[in-house]
Every structure is written in structure tokens, then in C-alpha cells.
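User: For a teaching handout, I'd like to show students what a predicted protein-ligand complex looks like in C-alpha cell form. I'll give you the sequence and the SMILES for 2-acetamido-2-deoxy-beta-D-glucopyranose. Please answer with just the structure.
Assistant: Understood, here is the input followed by the structure.
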Amino acid sequence: MADLTLLHIIIFLLLRCFSSVAIELTEKETILESWDILTSYSQANEWPNLSRNRAIAIRTQRDVSVNNTIAYTVVPGVDLNTVVFDQYGYNSTSLDSFKTLMNVGIQSFVLHLYYDETHKNWLLCPKEKIIEQSKLDEYTECAVNDFNLTSLVSTLNSFMLLTNNDLNINIMYLLLKLESFSFSRNQTISTSLRNSSIDSLSTVFETINKVVSPLSIDNNNLPTLHDLLYKLSQRVFPIVIEDQLNYNTSYNLLDDKYSLFVGSNNDSKSISNEETNVLSVDIQEEYSIECQTIESSSAGSYLRFSYDTETYPYDLQSYWESIQCGYSPIISHSFDNLSDISSFLEISLWSWVPYQPTITTTDELSIPEIFQNLTTRNIHEEFNSNTYSINITSSLSKHLTGSVSNYTSNNRDENEDFDDEYNNRCAVISRSGWVATTCDRKLYAICINSKNSSDYQITSEKRTYTKADLECQSLDGDYELTVPRNTLQQDYMMSLIPDDESALWINLNSLSSKNCWVVGIDSTCPYQSVISHHIFVQMITPSSVMGFLLFVLFLFMQFQQLPVHKNRKYWKKLLNEKLKNDYDGVPS
Ligand SMILES: *[C@@H]1O[C@H](CO)[C@@H](O)[C@H](O)[C@H]1NC(C)=O
Ligand SMILES: *[C@@H]1O[C@H](CO)[C@@H](O)[C@H](O)[C@H]1NC(C)=O
Ligand SMILES: *[C@@H]1O[C@H](CO)[C@@H](O)[C@H](O)[C@H]1NC(C)=O
Ligand SMILES: *[C@@H]1O[C@H](CO)[C@@H](O)[C@H](O)[C@H]1NC(C)=O
Ligand SMILES: *[C@@H]1O[C@H](CO)[C@@H](O)[C@H](O)[C@H]1NC(C)=O
Ligand SMILES: *[C@@H]1O[C@H](CO)[C@@H](O)[C@H](O)[C@H]1NC(C)=O
Ligand SMILES: *[C@@H]1O[C@H](CO)[C@@H](O)[C@H](O)[C@H]1NC(C)=O
């Protein structure tokens, strides 16, 4: 009898043990599977294309901040010489890499230009390289017939032409470092290494598509991103950030003052500070950035850049901090493989958390471990100061490289969750940025006083997204739901997240159209009415295969009714109303 009981107990314990192992395994699998789903759309995986969710995230960030002056734009950058040319050669192969970098969303480029005083030509190759090549029988680099400033500008222009549409257009910076050298009498250099026929910078830079002209910019009153892109219809800033031409140079930089800007950061020998084309530029080495010293009063007048070096390269941590501080980081250290830059690109937006807004149906907020690993951010005690220290966990860095394990191999397919079509269509702010989540989650919301733009309040009740604005209005005063428009506001709003909360509603959703994020619950996607479906789809999903799937989905949404979860009638009604409006025609 006693034996039987003991047996029972043992069996019972064994069963317990087994079932708990089983449960643990499934949870772990779900987590890993979710990581895989997220990382399968990573920039590293989609290289050399722009990853789909980054395309959407970049556009959302642009649209939300479009009324800020361009000084608030934070863009990823690289030093073309150290990252590309030194690595892959001063030849046309590197121009392909330049194209790829623009394609994956790099928006600022440092470029060294060399003036050959002896032959009065602008060259892309440094002197040592030319001399080294001139000793070879066949030139592998620096041959001006396939690698010159004109061919570089053509590469740039072909990208411009592809992206001159409402969906893709964005600002770009060409940051120039000018140097000069001369050859001595006894150095005979073949003309195919030195005769670029470019004796004036203006003549080349004026051919850049939508180049920003110093004549159209009031340097003391920078335009908003909106006015630059859509009113002035300009987008590429050519700025001399380093003028190292010899004192006795025969090149007169003043001749270029109607086409090139000069950064206030360098004491240019040829252009005085009274010149009309001097732009306020603040360029810092990565480790010397001090976030706290940026006054909001001066934030809108300086273009800010930071750069790293081979000796002190960015890590994900310092890169992120630069972005969050409002300094556009310029990567100057080389990579063994150019696509390794992807993990930096994944965190190159001040707004969204990596992999957000996810185009999968995975709701990160529902998977605490992933959400936490994506958004770990240690808050210092000081409230309301720019002194956070973020902490990108090593596990996140691993995932940022986009490595996919084998969990996606089971039969999960992209269209499986048609029922969850409206998953992840409302945005929250977490301690490291925005996350797309299910709209019917109950959360506090961030409200702004419409009469006082520095007065923010958190709602007193947790509500679903649709009720968040009402909840703001119910506060004492003229409050409404708000969204951060730049890094300063982002930083401040993050600091308002209560200690025991991980996220708050912000005024951002994609209810009217999937993948099109807009401010305001009643707003419709601005792109549907103005442009063809084709471009819409092309931009939403840079790679065409997925693009086609979404195109079908898009049409489906437009002409059929949106398939919604059966037991969520409210959403069905809301979305149907929205879609009907869209279909009836959005006024442009
Ligand atoms: C930008 O400002 C214009 C005019 O004030 C306004 O119509 C538009 O809605 C604003 N856009 C955003 C994204 O705030
Ligand atoms: C510059 O490069 C382009 C494109 O490779 C070429 O067509 C052009 O002839 C080159 N310019 C010179 C002066 O060789
Ligand atoms: C110009 O200055 C550089 C050094 O600054 C010197 O090497 C060069 O010989 C000078 N050239 C002329 C023509 O004086
Ligand atoms: C989350 O981060 C912790 C700490 O770095 C790590 O132990 C854990 O494995 C990570 N989880 C996932 C799913 O990556
Ligand atoms: C995934 O599984 C396949 C076949 O089972 C295997 O060949 C491959 O190496 C695996 N990949 C990874 C990253 O584990
Ligand atoms: C606006 O709000 C801020 C923060 O609450 C407060 O310090 C300031 O006095 C307010 N300004 C006005 C004009 O009420
Ligand atoms: C990149 O996009 C092109 C065209 O849209 C597509 O053919 C190619 O397969 C894509 N590459 C990757 C790695 O997704």
C-alpha cells in the first residue's frame, strides 16, 4: 500500500517535472521564434536593400519632425574615404558601395577632395595613392576616367532621382574636407591619374540634383525640413567642414561661395565669417559629446555631427547616445564587411526602437523578455534631465546583426495572421523609443497643454489608444495627446514615464493605412491620394517580392473590407469607417 502511494507520488512528480519542462521549452521557443521573426526583416538580412521596417520608420520620423528646423534632423553618416575608398579602392567599385550606403539610409557623407596645385585639378585620390599607382604598369585605383568627382556626383544623382518622391525624399549632407598638394618637378604623373578636367568645384556641385543653394538659405534662420524639401525643393547640403588648402593655394574658394556652404567649425583661410554661406556647424569627436550642454534655445540653430576614429570606434552604446543627443553620427572606422554597418543602422533613429514599427504581427510588448532586451535603459535618479544612460544589452547586439537561427523553419507564414491585420497599429513611447503595439492595450498617455508647449501631463487613468486623447482632455486644462517631434522632446517625454510603467501612448497610429504612420486618430495616410499605388508599395516595401504581397493586401484593404478579428467589433467599425473615407477620396 505504502509502495503504491510512493509510486503515485513519483509518477506525479515526474509528470509535474515533464509538464513544466514542456512549458518552459515552448516559452523559450516562442521567444526565440519571435526574435527570428523580428530579425528576419533586419537590415543585415535585407542588405543591400533598405529593410522594410526601416523604410517605414525613417519616413515616420521624417514626417513627424517635418516642422522642425533642419538643425533637429539626426541622420546616420559615414566617412567615404575611411569606410569605403581606403577599404575597397579608389575606383568605380567603391561607387557601387556608395550607392548601397545611400540605399540603406545613410544620409551624410564625409568626402575628401584634393586640389593638385601643379596641374590645377580637383582629385578624389590623395597624393601618396597617386604616386603609388603611378609606379604600376596598370592602374587599379585613381584612374580619373572611371573615378572622379563627376562620376561620384552621377552616382549621387541617380539615387536622388529614384528618391525624389513624397515617400522617399529626405535631406542629405555632403561634408567636404579640402586639401591641396603639389607634385615636384621630377615627379612625372600620367595624365590618366591626374587630369580630371575639374578646375572648379562649383561647376560639379551645381549639377547635383536638388542641391541646396546658399542663396536660398537664411543662415541665422534655418528652414524647416518641410520648407526645405517641399517649398524650396532642395535636399543636398554641400558643406566645406575642413579647409586645409595651402595658404598659398592658387584655388580661390570664394568663387564657390554661391554653391558651397562653409561650416562655422573650421577657420577657413579663404572665407571670412561675414560671408553669406557660413553655416553654424558643430562637429565633435564621439567621446567629447556632452548631451547636457545642449540648450533647447540653441538646439535649433546648429547642425550637429559627431564622428569616431579607428582608435576609438563607435560601439552601439556610444552611437546610440550620439543620436539621442541630437548629433548625427558619422562612422569613420572601417568594417571588414560593409554590411556590418547594419547593426548601427538598426539603432540610427531617435524615434523608433530597433525593428520597429514591426511589419510582423509580433507584438513586442507581449513578450516581456524581448521588449526588455530591446529597450533596456537605466534611468538615473534625476528626473527631467538629459542624463540617461542607455544600456544596449549584449544580447541585443547579437540580435542586431540579424542572425537568424532555425526557429522560423516551422510553418509560420506571413499571411497566417490575416485576422490580426490591425495588430501593432498604435504607438507607445518606451524608455528607448517608440514601439508599435495593439491599440486595445490599456496604458497611460502623454498629454501636452495646447496653451503651453512645455507643460506635459500623464493621464490619470489607463485607457486604450482610442480613449487616450479623451483621457488627456479630461485633465484639468487644455491637454491633448502628443508625440515627440525631435530628440529633445523625445528625451523629455521618456523621462516622464513613471517608474513602474514601461510605456505610454503617444499620438501616432497607422489605423487608416497599414505601414503609414500618422499623427492623430482621425488622420489619414497622406500618400494614398497623391501618388500611385505603385510608388506607395515600392516605398513601403523596398523589395519587390514582399512589395507585391503587400500591394495585393493594400488593394484588398481598399476595395474589400478589411478583415478583422471576429470578436472585436469596435475595431471593425472604426477601421471600416476609415477605409470608406480613404476610398471616397482623401482631399490632397
Ligand atoms: C506642419 O505645419 C503645417 C502648417 O502649420 C501643418 O499644417 C502640418 O500639419 C504640420 N505638420 C506636422 C507633421 O505637424
Ligand atoms: C569621369 O568619370 C566618368 C564616368 O566614369 C567618365 O565618363 C568621365 O570621362 C570621367 N572624366 C574624365 C575627365 O576622365
Ligand atoms: C605653398 O606652400 C606649401 C606649404 O604650405 C609649399 O610646400 C609649397 O612649395 C608652396 N608653393 C608655392 C608655389 O609657393
Ligand atoms: C535578454 O537579455 C538577457 C541579459 O543580457 C539575456 O540573458 C537573455 O538571454 C536575453 N533574452 C533574449 C530572448 O535575447
Ligand atoms: C538551419 O537548418 C539547416 C537544415 O536543417 C542547416 O543546414 C542550417 O545550417 C541551419 N542554420 C542555422 C543558422 O542553424
Ligand atoms: C508652462 O509650463 C511650464 C511647465 O509646467 C511652467 O514652468 C511655465 O510656467 C508655464 N508657462 C506659462 C506661461 O504658464
Ligand atoms: C533587393 O531588392 C531587389 C529588387 O527590389 C530584389 O530583387 C532583391 O532580391 C532584394 N535583395 C534582398 C537581399 O532582399
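For the handout, you might add this sentence: The chain has a mean pLDDT of 81.
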